[in-house]
UniProtKB/TrEMBL annotation:
UniProt GO BP: L-amino acid transport
Bilayer-crossing regions: none
Name under which the protein is recorded: ABC transporter ATP-binding protein
Family the UniProt entry places it in: Belongs to the ABC transporter superfamily.
PROSITE patterns: ABC_TRANSPORTER_1, ABC_TRANSPORTER_2
Native source species: Teichococcus oryzae
Protein keywords: Amino-acid transport, ATP-binding, Nucleotide-binding, Transport
Domain named ABC transporter: residues: 13-242
Gene Ontology terms, MF aspect: ATP binding; ATP hydrolysis activity; branched-chain amino acid transmembrane transporter activity
Pfam family, one: ABC_tran
Amino acid sequence: MNAVTGHAAPPALEVRGLTSGYGGREVLSALDLALPQGEVLCLVGHNGAGKSTLLKLLFGLHQASAGTIHLRGRTIQPRPDAMAREGVAYVPEGRGVFPGLPVRDNFALALWSARLQGAEAEARTEEVLTVLPRIREFWTRRAGQLSGGQQQMVSIGRALLSRPSILLLDEPSIGLAPKTFQDLMAPIRALQQKLDMSILLVEQNVGEAFAASDRVAVMKSGRMIFNGVPADLSDHARLMEMF
Ligand SMILES: Nc1ncnc2c1ncn2[C@@H]1O[C@H](COP(=O)(O)OP(=O)(O)OP(=O)(O)O)[C@@H](O)[C@H]1O
């Protein structure tokens, strides 16, 4: 039994005492956080709190100056290629697509990097297009010509093609109307439950994000100030106090 999460399985990802920054300026200060296996954890916090930095550290795109990172109970030093091989997918904030290529080719490249071919690649593509059916509407259009929200969908769709066991999602609601964000999260939530995926979701759009999450963690100035279930933050005033 894990002392922090109360779960029998080790957390999908966990950081202990993680400290990091940029050019001598500390951005994360002795941070502790666990993403329980098979759960959606929503990480919120004001602009500049260090949420994106944490995701970058977890995927090996930035380095910690102190602390440890654990993948399914094992201490690791993340590197993007090794994390991808471990079934971790990272969808950065913004538009993580190849703008000059049609959506279809954006998918083809993701299938190629996940070493998926033939019938298996087709089945995976169908699975993702069933989860995010609106992608079919712009399947042959160049990704760079799509709206921010449509590009966000393509970016998440590409990540789902590899059927990640852990998904790191940085502000997927950016550029999306609240209703569109709900339409995006609901099928992802269903797939997450079906595949027992663990998702770390960084979001500002708390209402919609909490509805799709099992747990919520709140960061302030590089520190974790709250970790609990969304219902604990249903008191709006309490949540606002934290920002
Ligand atoms: N590459 C970088 N070089 C220098 N400083 C950086 C860099 N990336 C982020 N920072 C700084 O680190 C701090 C934390 O940034 P980070 O992007 O992790 O916060 P965030 O919580 O994700 O914010 P937001 O919600 O605005 O995306 C900010 O003060 C930011 O300016």
